[in-house]
Design a protein that fits this description.
With 161 residues, the protein is mainly alpha-helical. Helices cover 75% and strands 0% of the residues. The protein is built from six helices and no strands.
């Protein structure tokens, strides 16, 4: 027990390496957060530019990026039209007051943040799956190679690999 304690005391911890790694980790985290902020800014700016352009100037991909916004707007317009038709047929009048809807309750559908979040979730899940599969397949292949190459190798692979 005293030998183990003596060995632990003799370990030379490099405090400068630990500080460098902490600073590096914090820098990478800040870069990631800054990159995600720029990505959000870029997506908003791009969608605003596409909204101002004519449909003839846009490519097929750019036109399809706007389809979600158009479908959400169409659903909102359809909901308001249904309100007006139901109100006018129920009260038998064409003088329909505007619907009493708070701005927070308006039908807007999923916003662009939701789409970005969904893509991040897809990316994270696929990354985790690839990591697990790589680990499982890599360990399996290494075990098979060590098992069968151990007989014809110069030293004991199972002891060191």
């Amino acid at each position: 027990e005293s030998i183990v304690d003596e060995q632990e005391n003799q370990k030379d911890e490099n405090i400068h390496l630990r500080r460098f790694l902490r600073v590096l980790a914090n820098f990478l985290i800040l870069c990631t957060l800054g990159g995600s902020g720029y990505l959000i800014y870029f997506v908003v700016k791009r969608s605003q530019e596409f909204a101002e352009m004519s449909q003839d100037d846009l490519s097929w991909f750019e036109k399809n990026e706007l389809e979600n916004e158009k479908s959400i707007k169409n659903a909102t317009v359809m909901a308001y039209n249904e309100y007006y038709s139901n109100y006018s047929s129920f009260y038998n009048t064409t003088d329909v007051p505007p619907p009493n809807i708070a701005p927070a309750d308006a039908i807007r559908g999923p916003c662009w943040e939701t789409a970005v979040g969904i893509e991040f979730v897809k990316l994270t899940v696929s990354d985790i799956q690839v990591n697990y599969l790589t680990i499982l397949i890599g360990d399996f292949l290494r075990a098979v190679l060590v098992r069968f190459l151990n007989y014809c190798w110069c030293w004991d692979l199972e002891a060191g690999f």
